[in-house]
């Protein structure tokens, strides 16, 4: 609650005291749909991650037998897709409607971690494997986009085609693992990895301020038109620079003194 309150303060320009009680209810409900977490929409991920991790822990405690675990994960994926398509407006506490789908990826990670053959397949340090996974990830993703007509959005529980969703997601994860084995030690990437959660929960607020600055010279239509191709990399670079600078200042001026 304290951390969510801090994000609310950072986005104080959109805050209305007359709606304070509703804001507290929205925070406790923990679902990011319907502009409930207007002060930082990406915070929906944390409650959903909590319930996903808790659900998978319970599931794996019941049985770690692959013959039981795989059918259970398959059932979760089907249940999640039915909820997403048949009841698109259903929004449960902590994003539980999305957790049915996200628990599948926890399971895939668990199965990968326990499989020497899968690890050997992705850890072969062959660029052909990484390139192949990159190509099929792009193909599956684009196919899903053109068939469904919209981007995948886990926050809104919008997945598109069932098979293409999971094929693109799993191949994308495998692609990242494969490329990571090809990259030698890189301090910058390691730093981003250690602070990935901070970057994730902070970037959207910085994006909003960057947009306000760009609106001085550009129209909203222009920004929307070139957003994905030109502005997305610019936004990312500026956000990473600002957040990393703040983190460096924090460690230098505050954290080291407290330690």
Helix and strand arrangement:
Blueprint: H1 2-10, H2 20-29, H3 45-62, H4 66-86, H5 96-113, H6 116-122, H7 127-148, H8 162-182, H9 187-194, H10 196-214, H11 220-258
| Helical amount | over 70%
Count all strands and give the number.
0
**Class by helix and strand content?**
mainly alpha
Strand content: under 5%
**Count of DSSP H/I helices:** 11
Describe the model.
The chain is mainly alpha-helical and 259 residues long. 74% of the residues lie in helices and 0% in strands. It is built from eleven helices and no strands. The model has no long low-confidence stretch (mean pLDDT 80).
List keywords for this structure.
259 residues; mainly alpha; 11 helices; 74% helix
Summarize the structure.
This protein is mainly α. The chain has helices at 2-10, 20-29, 45-62, 66-86, 96-113, 116-122, 127-148, 162-182, 187-194, 196-214, 220-258. Helix 3 (45-62) packs across helix 5 (96-113), helix 4 (66-86) packs antiparallel against helix 5 (96-113) and helix 7 (127-148) packs antiparallel against helix 8 (162-182).
């Amino acid at each position: 609650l304290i951390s969510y309150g801090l994000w609310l303060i950072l986005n104080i320009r959109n805050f209305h005291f007359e709606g304070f009680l509703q804001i507290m209810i929205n925070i406790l409900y923990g679902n990011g749909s319907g502009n409930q977490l207007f002060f930082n929409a990406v915070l929906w991920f944390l409650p959903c991650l909590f319930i996903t991790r808790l659900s998978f822990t319970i599931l794996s405690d019941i049985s770690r037998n692959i013959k039981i675990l795989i059918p259970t994960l398959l059932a979760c994926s089907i249940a999640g897709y039915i909820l997403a398509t048949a009841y698109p407006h259903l929004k449960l506490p902590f994003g539980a409607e999305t957790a049915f789908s996200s628990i599948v990826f926890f399971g895939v990670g668990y199965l990968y971690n326990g499989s020497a053959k899968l690890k050997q397949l992705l850890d072969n340090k062959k660029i052909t494997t990484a390139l192949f996974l990159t190509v099929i990830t792009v193909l599956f993703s684009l196919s899903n986009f053109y068939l469904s007509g919209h981007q995948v959005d886990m926050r809104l529980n919008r997945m598109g085609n069932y098979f293409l969703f999971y094929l693109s997601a799993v191949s994308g994860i495998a692609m990242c693992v494969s490329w990571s084995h090809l990259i030698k030690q890189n301090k910058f990437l390691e730093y981003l990895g250690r602070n990935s959660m901070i970057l994730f929960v902070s970037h959207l607020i910085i994006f909003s301020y960057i947009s306000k600055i760009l609106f001085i010279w550009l129209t909203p239509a222009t920004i929307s038109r070139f957003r994905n191709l030109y502005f997305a990399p610019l936004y990312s670079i500026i956000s990473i620079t600002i957040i990393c600078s703040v983190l460096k200042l924090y460690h230098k001026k505050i954290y080291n003194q407290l330690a």
